[in-house]
Specification:
Shape: elongated
Number of helices: 12
Largest sheet: 5 strands, antiparallel
CATH class of the largest domain: Alpha Beta
Helix content: 40-55%
Distance between the termini: 88 Å
Strand order of the largest sheet: 2-1-5-4-3
Length: 357
């Protein structure tokens, strides 16, 4: 449409200029020729003004359409400089919803730069990714945190591309920034559900197994020592039958809390299944691990498990296995089966025992 109007202006100007020349060379008297030239010139001006008005109107309509499209896009469309502040030269209306800032506050760093909106822990990460992309002449796709005007943290996804002019000089970066905070919350919750036991809140069996696999590989490579213990609450079935499953669930949660509070920060505990728990005692040999388990055992025995006015005293049996017991080919199953056999031995020989060899 713009090309059509441009052609019309050129054609009209050409025709009217020809009319001026014809009027000038006509056989009429000088006053008549001057009048014709005046009228023809006036017609040229009117024609150019009319067509210019139509062109500007069309351009304004195009800009309105573009503006409406940008305003309804999810996130923020931007153009910025590739400088230390990521100086914004254009941001769409979505900046208000994403950050709480108006366009004029962000453009040209009037109130705040995008560099300062990026969470400090991610600033170097964003910079490094853009530097790598520029070196490879590639686009950037990154996720990072920002801090909005109210001080709230948000996760964003950014896709950016370097823009060059015809001779290869860098003009800046064009891109899109989208709020992915809700997606990150869902991902975090799904991850939490995948590694934690839903009842006790400690790690689940699958996660503990994965950690044991990793630790075995590290022990082979760096000769690190760790032990695995399986704990079983003695006579738990009797407690369940006597007081009900709700009371039994309380006991499991309370037992898990006691164990976790008496372990070191770097030790791991997970639910093995039912009333059985599995503990990874890091950087510890058999003697130190047995001492730690004994401390938990004493705490449990001195604790009354009270729920809705009903109190019960409990004990547990445990089997312990140390990675250094198996100098040859060691697997997770070998380590766990060894601890499980020792647990069975403890239960068969009076319970309330820790068997470590």
């Amino acid at each position: 449409m713009k090309h059509k109007h441009g052609f019309s202006v050129i054609l009209s100007t050409f025709v009217c200029t020809g009319a001026v020349l014809v009027a000038y060379s006509s056989p009429f008297s000088l006053p008549i020729r001057l009048a014709l030239i005046f009228l023809t010139t006036s017609l040229i001006c009117v024609t150019i003004l009319f067509l210019s008005h139509r062109i500007n109107k069309q351009l304004a309509a195009d800009d309105t359409i573009k503006s409406q499209l940008l305003d309804h896009l999810p996130g923020v469309v931007f153009h910025c400089k590739n400088d230390e502040h990521w100086t914004m030269e254009f941001v769409s209306h979505g900046i208000r919803e994403l950050c709480g800032y108006k366009e004029k506050e962000v453009i040209a760093n009037s109130a705040i730069s995008w560099e300062n909106i990026i969470s400090p822990e991610y600033r170097a990460y964003v910079r490094t990714n853009y530097e790598k992309a520029q070196a490879k002449n590639d686009k950037v796709q990154i996720e990072y945190k920002i801090i909005d005007k109210k001080g709230n943290e948000k996760w964003v996804y950014e896709q950016g591309i370097f823009v060059y002019d015809r001779i290869g000089d860098l003009l800046g970066i064009d891109g899109l920034i989208v709020d992915i905070t809700d997606r990150k919350k869902i991902e975090s919750e799904l991850y939490r559900l995948s590694i934690f036991d839903h009842l006790t809140g400690i790690f689940n069996r699958r996660y503990i197994f994965e950690r044991i696999n990793t630790l075995i590989e590290e022990s082979k490579r760096y000769e690190r020592c760790f032990c695995v213990a399986i704990l079983d609450i003695d006579f738990f079935k009797t407690v369940n039958d006597k007081h009900g499953h709700t009371y039994g669930d309380y006991v499991l949660c309370e037992f898990a809390t006691i164990c976790k509070n008496n372990l070191r920060p770097y030790d791991l505990i997970g639910r093995y299944g039912g009333e059985e728990f599995i503990v990874i005692l890091m950087n510890s040999g058999r003697a130190e691990s047995c001492e730690l388990l004994q401390r938990i055992k004493d705490t449990v025995q001195n604790h009354t498990f009270t729920y809705k006015g009903v109190g019960t005293n409990l004990a547990f049996s445990a089997g312990l296995s140390c990675v250094h017991e198996f100098p040859g080919t060691l697997t997770r199953d070998i380590l766990i089966n060894s601890a499980d056999k020792r647990l069975y031995f403890a239960k068969e020989n009076g319970r309330n025992k820790i068997i470590g060899q």
